[in-house]
Amino acid sequence: MRKLENLLDEYGESHQDETNKLVHWICVPVIFWSITALSWSLPIPIIEKTIVNNWCTLALIPVTIYYLVLSWQLALGMLVFSIGCLLLNAIIEASFPGSLWKIALSLFVIAWIAQFWGHKIEGKKPSFLKDIQFLLIGPAWLLHFIYKRANIAY
Fold first, then answer.
1. Does the model's pTM come out above 0.85?
2. What are the phi and psi torsion angles at 102 (to 5°)?
3. Minimal CA–CA distance to 26: which of 136, 111, 120, 121?
């Protein structure tokens, strides 16, 4: 069995309850986006911040490499989602100057509260408490369901 399949299976063990799964379908993308938005909001000394020129884009490079090591198909899907996050950050920042970090932080906190509530219903601890890499497996776990439904190999 490939490493990715092992990680997805292990992550899935603590995500069997339908309510917890629904919470994850909503909150995992929100948390991923909010982290991109918070890192986007960090000041960059000297240079002007653009969609390519910010801490978020820099942080997404090793994240994309991590997904690439697991599966190039999954990495491609996560890259598309990541670019969507970057575009959303740019739109929010342009539309509501100075508010991106406040919106992101609020949603980050709310989403994590919901995640822990979902795990309380599940009766199992979040996977990342066992292994930190599961913070990156959560989005991949959701994407693998989309790929399966679309008959895309990963």
1. yes
2. -70, -45
3. 111
Cα separation of 55 and 51, whole Å?
10
Provide the mean pLDDT of the chain: 93
Label each residue of 50-62 as H, E or C.
Answer: CCCCCHHHHHHHH
Residue given tokens 């490939």 in the structure block: 2
Separation CA 78–CA 9 (nearest Å) = 19
Could you give the CA distance from residue 128 to residue 115 in angstroms, rounded to a whole number? 12
pLDDT in tens, 38-54: 999 998 777 666 667 78
Q: Residue 14 phi/psi, 5° resolution?
A: -100, 20
Give residue-wise pLDDT tens across range 1-13: 579 999 999 999 9
Phi and psi at residue 126, in whole multiples of 5°?
-60, 145
Q: Residues 89-119, buried b or exposed e (16+ Cβ, 10 A)? A: bbebbeeeeeebbeebeebbeebeebbeebb
